[in-house]
Design a protein that fits this description.
2 domains, OB fold (Dihydrolipoamide Acetyltransferase, E2P), alpha+beta, 8 helices, single chain, 28% strand
């Protein structure tokens, strides 16, 4: 990576290299290359369904999009989720707004897990941005989907119907920039590739363990014995958190492949964290820290849609998303060769 700046004296340009992996040698040739248009903003929206179901991790910041309904005008008996924003622009915008839906994007928001009977809190962070009815593609696409939702007679009905708008977008999100490939094709790839497939979990590679000690802020492996600077998030840590890492064998007809399930997907499947599972083993009198918990065996035989990153060098594929949604599974079946379904 590099950038060009003009020196104060003028007359010539100075190139400053920002990445030590980039070298210029005597035979290096630099040519002008026309770059494709780079979008100003790229969003990876987390749906309300993912947040409410616990699929969205509270360890990372998220982008959310939705239709504004009201500001503390109606109280709910049992609210499930509350969005906190301290930006005065929203109330100011409401005073001037006349007609039409108000679509809001909140970037880099923090998910706060519920405590007791309290709802899930979505709160803006220091670096969050609030976009209100901006003239951008994402808001226009969301507004177009809302046009198909019938007019509602009550606020609760509106919230329910707005929630349904995400169903189609969740399915689209699963397939974005990821072609559907069969397990046979995945085994033949000689380069890294993101793709989607359908497969059944056949067995675990028990000898490779099921968990590791990771950074408390991200998923990078950490050192539980000392204070260290995490190579993933760059933060100082004094401890670690148990996280899942399970190697599995999956099958599709007569073909098999090795996948690696990480923490988020395992929690989604098992409804328990690695730390909680380790505590259960200790409470049950298990003294072997490498013992494979029986509770994990409940996922054997599951047919799932997998979004993966194929890693030919290690002959494994890393799972980055899973789904048991029937619409997603049916869509994959239609795109797979008939003899692979």
């Amino acid at each position: 990576m590099c950038f060009i700046q003009k020196t104060p004296e003028g007359g010539f340009l100075e190139m400053i290299l920002m990445d030590e992996r980039l070298f210029f040698t005597k035979g290096t040739i630099v040519k002008e290359h026309e770059l494709l248009e780079i979008p100003e903003h790229v969003y990876d929206f987390t749906t309300f369904e993912e947040i409410l179901s616990g699929q969205a991790s509270s360890d990372v910041l998220v982008d959310v999009i939705g239709q504004f309904v009201d500001i503390e005008q109606e109280r709910y008996d049992n609210p499930k989720m509350v969005i906190h924003m301290k930006d005065p622009r929203l109330s100011n915008f409401m005073e001037k707004h006349e007609t039409g839906p108000i679509i809001i994007i909140l970037t880099l928001a923090k998910i706060k897990d519920p405590k007791g009977e309290c709802p899930i809190i979505i709160q803006g962070s220091h670096d969050s941005k609030l976009l209100i009815n901006e003239n951008i593609v994402e808001i226009q696409q969301y507004r177009n989907r809302l046009d198909s939702v019938p007019v509602c007679e009550s606020l609760s009905q509106a919230i329910s119907q707005i929630s349904s708008v995400f169903e189609a977008s969740t399915i689209d999100k699963f397939f974005v920039n990821t072609p559907v490939k069969s397990v046979m094709e995945i085994n033949e790839f000689d380069r890294e590739l993101f793709c989607v497939t359908l497969a059944k979990i056949e067995k675990f590679f028990v000898a490779n363990g099921w968990s590791y000690e990771g950074c408390s802020r991200c998923n990078v492996k950490g050192d539980p014995e000392t204070t260290y600077i995490c190579s993933g998030c760059g933060k100082s840590n004094t401890g670690t958190v148990a996280r899942f890492r399970i190697e599995i064998l999956v099958s599709q007809e007569k073909e098999c492949a090795e996948f690696v399930l990480w923490d988020k997907e395992c929690v989604q499947l098992l409804n328990v964290t690695a730390a909680e599972l380790k505590k259960q083993l200790i409470d049950d009198g298990e003294v072997d820290p490498l013992a494979f918990p029986e509770a994990i065996e409940c996922i054997l035989g599951k047919m799932l849609a997998f979004k993966i990153k194929v890693q030919p060098r290690c002959r494994k594929s890393f799972v980055i998303q899973i789904s048991d949604d029937e619409q997603i599974i049916d869509s994959i079946k239609l795109k797979l060769p008939s003899d692979e379904v």
